[in-house]
Every structure is written in C-alpha cells, then in structure tokens.
Amino acid sequence: MPPLRSTGADRDAEGPDYAGEYRLQACLGAGGMGVVHLATSASGLRLAVKVVHAQYAEDPEFRARFRQEVAAARRVSGAFTAPVVDADPDAVRPWMATLYVPGPTLADQVKRSGPLSRAELRRLTAGLAEALRDIHRAGVVHRDLKPSNVLLTDSGPKVIDFGISRPVDSDLRTETGKLIGSPPFMAPEQFQRPREVGPAADVFALGSVLVHAATGHGPFDSDSPYIVAYQVVHDEPDLTGVPEELAPLVARCLAKEPAERPTPAEIMAALLPPSYEATAFIPAQRRSPGPFPSLAADGAAGAAAGSFAGAWDADTPVRAVAPPRRRRWPRPRLRLRLPVALGVLLALAAGGTVAVLATRGAERPAAPGHPAKAATSFTGWQTVLGTRGGGGEGGDASAPACALSGGALYCSGPGPLVSRLDAATGRVVWSRPAAGAGRTAPALLPGGTVAVTSDTGEVHTYAAGNGTPGWRTRPAAAETNRPAGSVVVLSGGTGRLRAVDAATGKQLWRHGLPGHSAPQLGPYDSASGLLTVFEPTADATHTLISAVRPATGKVLWSHRLKGNLVPVAHGRDGALVLSATYRDMQTEALVRYAPERREARRVPLPYRVDSASTAVAGSTAYLLGRLGTLTAVDLAAGRVLWDLETGSRNVSALAPGDGGRLYVSASDGRLLAVDTAHGTLVGQTRPRLGDGRLGYVTSVPAPVTSGHRVYGTAPDGSVFAVDGSDPAGW
What is the DSSP annotation of 378-390? Predict the structure, then answer.
C-alpha cells in the first residue's frame, strides 16, 4: 500500500514513485523548476502533481517562494483555475497537487493549429478577463500570465502556475535587481520598478497573450530577450493581424502606463453582449490525441482554489450591480530615452538587474477634451519637509502624515517630528525636530494643542500657534492612543486603559474594563461623546463591543456580537459600522449595529477585501483594499452599488471630500480622485518618488481635505496641495 502522507522526514515517500500519499503515474511535463506528474486520489480524482527538482529543494529562498505559490494558489477561486487538492511545501521534495484539467495550453494550441478564430478569440478575451478579475479580488497578482499558463477547456480558459504570484500580504519581497517573469509578456513596470507591480501588469500580459492567440506571435518579438525588453518599454506594439473589432481594446491593455489600461471589469463590459458563437474554446478535432494531453512544464499544477462557499449570509442577500463603464484619464506616457533604454538592456545582460525610471517635472497638463481649470483663489504648491522619506534601494519608504485645522496643516514624519505649514501657500511656519520620527498623523486637541506619536511610542504635544513643547508621555512602543474630546485615551499590553487630560497631560484614570482582558481602541463619536472599545474572542467567533465615557472611563453599554468584528465608523443616526473580518484580515461583510435597539444587520460582500479601509458617508460605505479595489455598498438596501479597480496596490485610507469625491494616496506618491456617484477614477497626480525608486512601504498616510482643497504627501518627503474641483487637470 502507498505510504502515508509524509511531512518530509521519509525520503522514500518523496522519491520518484510518490509525492506524499500520491503515486505518480505519468509525466505530464518538465521544466526548470520541477516535474508535473499525473496521479490519482483515493476517491479517484485525477490530479496534476508538481514536484520540485532536488537541487531547489535545498534552497531556503526557493522553498519560501514555493510556499508562497501554494498560499497564492489556495486563495484564488477554482472557477478559473485548477483547484489545489493537497500540498506539502516542507517535504524533502516539495510538491503541490491540483485537480487535473484536461485540455491543451494556449501555446500548444496555437503552435499546432494556428491562430484562434474570431469567436474563439472573443471568448478567450472574456474568459481571461473574468479570471483576472477573480484572481485580483482574491488579493493576488499573477505576474506571469502567458500562453503556456493558459489551459483551454470546454468550460473556458483556466489560468495556472502561480509560481511568482504576489499575495498582497506576503512577507516575501522581490529581491532588488532580480528580473522575474517572461519578457515577451511582461509589463514595462516589471522592468522599471518591479517592487511596484500591481494588477495592471496582468492586464498588459493579457494584451500580449491575445495578440499571440490572434496572430501566432507577440506584440514585441525578437530572438533576443534584451531587445524584447527594450521594445516593451519603448516601442509601440505590433497589432497586425488582430481583428479590428478587438484591436482598440488590446491596444489599451498594452498601454505603457498602468493607469491607462482597462480593468478586467472594463474589458468584460466592452465585450457585452457575450458571444455564444463558439460553444467550446477548442473544437473536438483540435484536441490532442490520447488520454493525457500535454501540459506546460512549470504550469500544469500551478493553479489554485479559493471558493468562498459558506461566506455568504443567506438571511441578507446581496445583489452585485455591474459597474458602469469607467473612463480613464490620460497620463503622460513614460518615454524611455535611447541611452536609458540601452542601460536597461545592459543591466539585463549583466545578470538580470533592471533600470528604474523616475517621472519628474511639473504636474501634467489638463486632459485633452477637458476645459482648462477655471481661475480660483487657490494655487497648488509643494513643500519638502526635512529629509526624503525613503524609497531608496532596499530601504523602507515613508511619507509625512498630516492633519488640518483651520488654515494650518500639521505634518509629522521623517526628518522633523512635527511641522506647521500654511495651508494656503505651503510655507513652513515652525518645525520641531526629534530623535525619532512621527508614526501617526498629528492630532488637534482642545486648547490649541497638537499631539503626535513618535516611533518610540511617546506622545509629544506642542502649542499650535508657535510650536512650544508641552507635555509628553513616557515611551511605550506597544501603546496606542486615541484623542477623545478633552482627553487622550491610551491602551497598552497590560489589559488596562488609561486617560490623560489633553491640555495638561495629567493622568485622569487607569483601570480595566468589565469583560475585557485586552481591549482595543475603536473610533470616537463626537456626537455622543463616547469611545468604542472592542475585543474579539480567542476563537474569533464573537466580539465584545463597549462604549466608554472617555473623561471617567465609565462603561455606558457593553454588547457581545457574533463574528470577528472591527468598528470602523459611526453612522449619522448613532449606529456603529463594523467590518466582519475573515482570517488574514480579509473583510467579508459589513455590520450596521444600532446599540439602543441591539439590532445588527449584516451586509455580505460579493468577495473578500484584503486589509480594507472603510469610509462611511450617509448610508453608503466605501471599502478600499490594499490591492486598490474600491467598493461602494448601500448599507440601507444591502447591496453593492459599484466597484472600481484603481490600479494601485498598497494604498492609504480613504479621505472623503466635497462634491461627492473620495481621495486616496498611492505608495508611489500619486493622489487619486474618485467620483462616488459613478465609481469612476477622475484624476491623479504624478508620482513623487524622489530618486525614482520605490522601497518597501509599510504604510501610506491618507490625504486630508478642506472643501475643494486636497493635501497629499509622498515618499520623497513632500507635502503638496491641489485643487479638487478639477482633478482631470492635475
């Protein structure tokens, strides 16, 4: 009988005959990283089992990458991939088993039978767009979409091989200087700034795949990968042979700038109504003979499951509304000068390093077809505070965090601990240095006091008018704080809360709360004067929510709610809005809780959102995931209004503004504006990276707004202001 599933201690189980408990029956393909075998499960399922080569099994970095591949594959939906059945990345020979999907790869099909017909090409476009939408919603960027990673089946295309995918919450960083991907199907940003590759890179790869499917060659063809790299970054794609009804859409997918590419949802909308001319992607006579069609090496077992069955609340159905078609506002195309382009090629030839380009200069002009910005009394400005915020090779990047009060902007961050700027001109009024840096935006306290938390956990206060230092707390790195009216409430790791007077820093009270062993601070509601405190149970099945009077520490009410909940905002009628989180900080639903009636209404989301930030305006909640997907939810009607893929990953919290606008900052220093009425991206500023390189960004501060004025910050250490009445002209 086969040996039991091994964790890696028994080499016999990981030999050429077995992977864990699965007997390897036939070789389906082999590649540089491993071999894909056919196997059968105990219940009779046919499996594709990927077993890595022995030499890579001894490499800790490769094991980490393979472990990431398994994790990424498990997260995405099985509707468009080959679901993961079992895996053991810690075995002597790491392996992963997915459901065997019969059907040739797109690469094999085109090689054997020539380009696809127009009907097949249309269905392939819609199927891959739908697959990418699902993969991105699961929090994964594929980064290596190519014809050999697309399986053609009667039920539509399946995307496989997540070997270099990047889950947004992965701890594994792309090593500086490493070129990862397949050059003919890589996006320009994968050569220029590989650490800032987002969902738009997969859309560029989709465009290249479609050209290959339509013509038998790619849009950038050469025998030399170095020349291909140059063409991808610098040249226009060759779309000769692409059907004219699809050529404009494919051209948009191949735009040099990520923001100019359509989202998968936009691609699907552009293809409506769907084509039913071809009932299957591959006619029967085109299928390869034999019971085991050839699968691509390194690709046959790389897909994953991620079905969200059971995440829906049957008592509160949600109907997802198809988002309207969204316009993309043009940005200046990044042109690679010949000497720089040759530098890219030389760097590639020298060992896989890549050149990164910086966009500098004045803000871009107004978009074509839009009137010039009307004259106003407000003129945009930019001020650099202290030293550059990071972004250098291998370093952590950070941007100043700001708060607005009247005509003054208070900012903390790298360099000075806190500075006051004139909000109209950007002039620095005063600045106070410190040994550390500010880790949160300053808080404006009663009595004209500004408070900022340093990276050592201390709370420093200053007189708002002239920056005279005031009271400060002792260092407490694990302590968090929340300004609440006339006091500041602090929570550490002791299980107790304490409060200090905002004007003097004098401690007012310090004690635990009934039922809480490790209370966490939620939002403060200025209307009721209550601070929300919460604590999930150890098994994450329930959450204790309490309302505390900040001045005394008295608990006004305490209710136990079902689910792992995080309070995010207070509604206009006293209701509390909470996010229901799944494991790995994925938001799967919103809960609207009315404490006076002890009534909770759960609004499930159609897909989980990674590390979502939430803003509430009236009865509408807006959720923004770290991958840049923005979703509007009507809490009263219990339905999704629209969703928008901003094309930016690792973004800030949302900042509502006048005129039905939402603003968000991206990790490269761009400020984005969204129209909430239609779910459209209506403008964005240029990147601000200083030396043009993006380091590892731990957090992105949110912009602040005042009327139509919007203030953003960037990793180059700058604070800038723009006129929000005309974001198309930024």
Answer: ---EEEE-SS---
User: How many distinct helices (H) and strands (E) make up the chain?
Assistant: 10, 44
Give the CATH number of domain 11-99: 3.30.200.20
**Residues 632 and 622 sit within 8 Å (Cβ to Cβ):** yes
383 in Cβ contact with 681 (< 8 Å): no
Query: First and final CA of the chain: distance in angstroms?
Result: 69
The C-alpha atoms of residue 333 and residue 201 are separated, in whole angstroms, by 16
pLDDT score at 397: 55
Other beta carbons within 10 Å of 315? 8
715 phi-psi bin (left φ>0, alpha ψ -120 to 50, beta other): alpha
146 annotated among ligand-binding-site residues: no
Record the tokens describing residue 141, joined without a space. 């960027």
Q: What 3 state SS string does 538-574 have? A: CCCCEEEEEEEECCCCEEEEEEEEECCEEEEEECCCC
Contacts 24+ apart (CB under 8 A), 363-366: 363/685, 363/686, 363/722, 363/730, 364/331, 364/332, 364/686, 364/730, 365/729, 366/726, 366/728, 366/729
Report the C-alpha gap between 524 and 485 in whole angstroms: 8
46 class by beta-carbon count within 10 Å (0-12 exposed, 13-18 middle, 19+ buried): middle
DSSP bridge partners of 33: none
Ramachandran assignment for 238, one of left (phi > 0), alpha (psi -120 to 50 degrees), beta (any other): beta
Beta strands 661-665; 671-675: pairing state? antiparallel
The strand pairing partners of 267, in sequence order, are none
In eight-state DSSP terms, residue 285 is G
Tokens 């099909």 sit on residue? 109
What is the pLDDT at residue 476? 63
CA distance 72 to 140: 7
The CA distances from residue 17 to 31, 437, 593, in Å, are 18, 57, 57
Confidence of residue 582 (pLDDT cuts 50, 70, 90): confident
pTM summary value: 0.54
- How does residue 182 score in pLDDT terms, banded at 50, 70 and 90? confident
Give, in order, the Cα–Cα distances in Å from 74 to each of 63, 84, 138, 173, 227: 17, 6, 10, 19, 36
Residue range 501-527, pLDDT digits in tens: 998 999 999 999 999 999 999 999 999
For residues 295 and 242, the model is more confident at: 242
Residue, of 298 and 245, whose pLDDT is higher: 245
Alpha helices in 235-380 (DSSP H): 247-253, 264-270, 338-349
